[in-house]
Design brief:
Layout lengths: L5 H9 L2 E3 L15 E3 L8 E2 L7 H12 L4 H11 L1 H10 L2 H12 L2 E4 L7 E4 L2 H7 L13 H10 L12 H18 L4 H18 L10 H18 L16 H20 L11 H33 L11 H6 L6 H32 L1 H13 L7 H13 L6 E4 L4 E3 L2 E3 L4 E4 L1 H4 L23 E2 L2 E2 L15 H18 E5 L20 E5 L2
Parallel strand pairs: 3-8, 5-9
Antiparallel strand pairs: 1-2, 4-5, 6-9, 7-8, 10-11, 12-13
The structure holds protoporphyrin IX containing FE (HEM).
The site of protoporphyrin IX containing FE (HEM) has 26 residues, from α14 and α18.
Length: 533
């Protein structure tokens, strides 16, 4: 057996390893019982084959190992039918019962072998996921959105896939530049975001019916708000998504809105099930290309304009500062950043960001409308405090809503080192599935876990292995979401405008998350917005 590399061994053993190998997974698991155990003797490693998992799939894998195929055939079958298929299945299914069954039958870590190769390990406890961030090296790898990657690299022949999909030093360099630029720009975004929020509030007044209820298509109104915020951030201008009278079908904003929702729907379908689009152009693949192309051209147009405006600023010897420039312009000025990599970055940020933001707003409104006491308390805070940064209760409402419904319910990492996970020796290249949607509702971590109780965040500092528990909706480690402070500013700005003006109610069936790769509400958002005065 190949030995773990020395740097990993050092990380794992020079620091003590936090583990809970003695804890029965089926029993109630108590965070306080996390045990710090001393060095593990390498002779006690258990082989990866001993990690529990469903045996029928394992049997198929054994068959696979005796069928001789060329490497190319192996790769194409693996790509089309292997781990991707199972991973898609996992995304699509209502995962919670599946995970609970896995934990009951196999324990805290479960190995699933694709029938044609491509093993992955499902991590059912949060502390294993957190420990993983200590060993996944400087360039953690995420493996997903293969369809979007194919669009960028093969269809468009771009050099890089973008910050969500990229790996290695290229990813790190771009991520650092994006983080720096966001950090400088976000403090100057207040007015743009506030204006979008005010327009949204007016739009609600315009679209609600005589019973103060908004139409079944309300989610698309939230999409418009998210897009307006994102356009403001990227291009420092309004695009007009939230026009009071609505969008004409042939307008540019209507096209961008339809492409944003269309591309997400197409990606979801492409990533689920057998990846036939890798071999032939399926209708889902064609839709993805159509919508992503439209977004690409809209962004490209703005990149050209920004280049021109930077040229003029230079000619006029006008300095470019975060106060007078957009995120796009600031990024274009960074050394070694090509317009093409800016383009891919913005496209990804729109696809990931707009979708996540929309989902977060939908569920925050839903949770507040189902919990009038909480909404009352929030209203009181908004009425007495003007400064968003000082609204503590607002912050915990956002935390609590994201705990219950994550916009990105499952994450993954491909191991960059041979790694010891709960004494099992797991080879590098294995995909690890991390399950924040399960951690968020675990009774063992959160008392009355299924209840929306923002107050819980006001008491003790809830930490696990030194990490705030609330951070997992944004992922973890070096690849966690870098837009968190932007998101918190946008969400609190919107909620303060809405709740100041309206009391929000909801009178229909429970709304759940579809829990697909990029999640969405599974019902129409038929909220009632009642004027407060
Ligand atoms: C409520 C809103 C949001 C939530 C809950 C959220 C959550 C996440 C999560 C869970 C990840 C994956 C982290 C991991 O694998 O550990 C992620 C990554 C990412 N998010 Fe967000 N996100 C949100 C909004 C945004 C916005 C508004 C943007 C763009 C402005 C954005 C851009 C990205 C990008 C580019 C990545 C990839 C980062 C990397 O791999 O280095 N997200 N986000």
């Amino acid at each position: 057996m190949e030995k773990p590399n020395s740097s990993l061994t050092e990380v794992a053993f020079s620091n003590e390893v936090v583990s809970h190998t003695n804890v029965e997974v089926n029993s109630i698991y108590d965070v306080a019982s996390l045990k710090t155990i001393p060095r593990i003797d390498p002779s006690q490693y258990l082989s990866f084959d001993m990690m529990p998992g469903p045996t029928s799939v394992r049997f198929c894998a054994k068959l696979w190992s005796i069928i001789p195929l060329t490497q190319n055939q192996e790769q194409s079958i693996k790509d089309t039918l292997g781990a991707d298929y199972l991973y898609g299945y996992l995304n699509w299914y209502n995962n919670i019962p599946l995970f609970k069954r896995m934990a009951r039958d196999y324990g805290a870590v479960v190995r699933i072998q694709g029938p044609f190769g491509g093993d992955f390990v499902v991590m059912l406890l949060m502390d294993d996921a957190i420990n993983l961030t200590q060993t996944d090296g400087p360039y953690p790898i995420r493996s997903c959105l293969h369809s979007l990657q194919q669009f960028r690299l093969k269809n468009k022949q771009y050099q890089h896939a973008g910050p969500f999909l990229n790996c290695g030093s290229e990813w790190k360099k771009m991520r650092t530049l994006i983080e720096e630029t966001l950090h400088n720009i976000v403090p100057h975004q207040g007015t743009i975001v506030r204006n979008a929020c005010k327009e949204f509030v007016q739009r609600i007044a315009h679209i609600r019916n005589r019973r103060d209820e908004v139409p079944l298509t309300f989610e698309s109104e939230i999409y418009k708000w998210s897009l307006e915020c994102m356009w403001g951030l990227f291009f420092n201008k309004r695009c007009g998504f939230l026009k009071t009278g609505g969008l004409s079908e042939s307008s540019e904003p209507a096209g961008i809105l339809s492409a944003t929702t269309g591309v997400i729907a197409a990606i979801r379908r492409c990533e689920f099930g057998v990846l036939v689009w890798k071999l032939v152009g399926t209708p889902n693949w064609k839709n993805l290309v159509k919508h992503a192309d439209l977004l690409d051209s809209a962004i490209k147009k703005n990149v050209c304009k920004a280049q021109e405006s930077l040229r003029q600023m230079k000619q006029n010897e006008k300095g470019v500062t975060p106060e007078n420039a957009s995120f796009l312009e600031m990024l274009l000025l960074k050394e070694g950043v090509s317009p093409e990599s800016v383009l891919t970055t913005l496209l990804e940020m729109i696809i990931i960001g707009v979708n996540s933001l929309t989902h977060a707003v939908s569920f925050l409104l839903y949770h507040l409308s189902c919990n009038p006491n909480v909404q009352r308390k929030l209203y009181k805070e908004i009425s007495t405090e003007q400064d968003l940064n000082k609204m503590q209760f607002m912050k915990v409402c956002i935390n609590e809503s994201l705990r219950l419904k994550q916009p990105i319910p499952l994450l993954n990492r491909v191991l960059t080192n041979n790694t010891v996970i709960r004494n099992y020796y797991v080879p590098k290249g294995t995909t690890i599935v991390i399950t924040p949607q399960l951690y968020g509702i675990k009774q063992e971590y959160f008392e009355n876990a299924l209840r929306f109780k923002p107050d819980r965040w006001l008491h003790d500092e809830m930490k696990l292995n030194g990490y705030p528990l609330s951070s997992l909706p944004y992922g973890l480690g070096g690849r966690a979401c870098f837009a968190r402070s932007l998101v918190e500013m946008q969400l609190s700005s919107l909620m303060s405008e809405i709740i100041r003006k309206y009391r929000v109610e909801y009178h229909y069936g429970e709304i759940n998350s579809t829990n697909t790769m990029l999640a969405a509400p599974n019902r129409s958002l038929r909220f009632t917005f009642i004027d407060r005065e």
